[in-house]
Amino acid sequence: MVRHPDAAMKARLRRYWLAPLPAPPERYRRGPWRPGFFRSGRRSTALTARLGLWLGLAFGICFLTGLLSHVIQHPPGWFWWPSRPVRLYQVTQGLHVITGLASAPLLVAKLWSVYPRLFAWPPARTVAHAAERGAVALLVAASLFQVVSGILNIFQKYGLMPFFFTAAHYWIGWLLIGAMLIHVGTRPRRTEGLSKDRRRLLLGVGAAAGLITLFTAGQTVRPLAPVALLAPRRPGDGPQGLPVNKTAAAAGVLPLIDDPAYRIILAGPGGELSLDLAALNALPQHAAILPIACVEGWSSTATWSGVRLRDLVAMAGADPDRAVAEVESVQAGGRYRTSVVAPEHVRDPLTLIALRLRGEVLHADHGYPARLIAPNRPGVLQTKWVGRITVREET
Amino acid sequence: MTRVRTLLIVAGVAGLVHAVLGLLTDPDIRLAGVLIFLAVVLVAHDALWMPALLAVTTLVARMRNRKTPESTPGPGNG
């Protein structure tokens, strides 16, 4: 009988994949590698499976809300994001950060429950076993990377991260979700029940996740602000009762915004206009109650007033119902000095070039003399210290 | 292997490939920094954090058992 060459190749690969690897000498089996070193009776595969389910759900929510935030900030051609409901981004990003923080105790407990497996003997029985362990190491490293870098980001400890957080958090998010799906797809199904002891442990982990949520959710859920003990920012913090991420001093714009020669250049199909603060104040003024919803999870709602962007777009000679506006800051550099306002937001009457906050002239840290504020957009896209608006009509 | 498991594995591999390509081609990625951070959090967790956590919980359990001698034999390492 002649075997098909493909079948022969498959058989050879299978043999290689499952061939036993030589075990290290037994004398090296010391410390945690010794049999019976880990004696806690609380670990079980059923407990691990339940912790894994919770953690998987938390990571799934974080991945989807994070992906949404990413495409809002870097919209591909097919993507469309509405201006209403005005609080939608506030909810999705608040959920992203709250769930990410709540996943920390779940991750600690999950890794505790499988920690003895790190010291399996022999360390690699077969090539397949070695590959499986490598995949688990990747999953664990990516999980820790996401939780730790996310926490460092909301506390603004950028110096501890040797990379640009936003890009790395996004790509490692893909790595994590990919490794997690493979892990779920290759795990045996567990259906055993839990002992009373393990149920109590699971309850404790759930309580820790709940307490972290309770003590941080106040950064975006106003009624919980008084107990937001772990939140880096609360809704009422900062000048004019609103938190600030980047101050005017840090952005290097103080001399520019205090200059009497300050103007907004409004460019469009109808030509170019130069508007000083008096000219902006002389235009019809409107108010909008809108949240600043930061990518770091905090948000705060306030009454903003100023000129409708759609009115400025009309002044620039474009149709406000199908125009795109590129809003630029007077900042010399920085990743967020420019933002593009899509037609959905340009035409929305709530989108303002704000001149006042809670009835007072904007504080320098909130974007004096003029800033963009639009409904349902991340805070990093609400350009401060506006110096130029370029309008073009969508074809 | 069920169809769902196959689907999960295929989707997972696609996610991994997308991540690796992104990490290699995104100009905003400092690959060395990302790899160092991945290694540091993994080693810090496995070699520092978890042994410390187990040492503390074992100590607490032993102290508790010493106070209540009628209880069951004390646990060993974490």
Biggest sheet statistics of chain B: none
Strand order in the largest sheet of chain A: 2-1-10-5-6
Large-scale geometry of chain B: flat
SSE string of chain B, helix = H, strand = E? HH
Mean pLDDT level of chain B: 88
Question: How many H/I helical runs of chain A?
Answer: 11
Q: Quaternary arrangement of the chains shown?
A: heterodimer
Low-confidence stretches of chain B: 71-75
Number of domains of chain B: 1
Please give the radius of gyration of chain B in angstroms.
22 Å
- Give the C-alpha Rg of chain A: 27 Å
Main sheet overview of chain A = 5 strands, mixed
Keywords:
heterodimer, A: 395 residues, alpha+beta, Sulfite Oxidase, Chain A, domain 2, five-stranded mixed sheet, 11 helices, 42% helix, B: 78 residues, mainly alpha, 2 helices
SSE arrangement:
The complex is a heterodimer of chains A (395) and B (78).
Chain A: H1 5-18, H2 45-73, H3 88-114, H4 127-154, H5 165-186, H6 196-216, H7 248-251, H8 254-257, E1 264-268, E2 271-275, H9 277-282, E3 286-293, E4 299-308, H10 309-315, E5 323-329, E6 338-341, H11 343-346, E7 352-357, E8 360-361, E9 371-373, E10 386-393
Parallel strand pairs in A: 1-10
Antiparallel strand pairs in A: 1-2, 3-4, 4-7, 5-6, 5-10, 7-8, 7-9
Helix pairs in contact in A: 2-3, 2-5, 3-4, 3-6, 4-5
Chain B: H1 3-25, H2 31-67
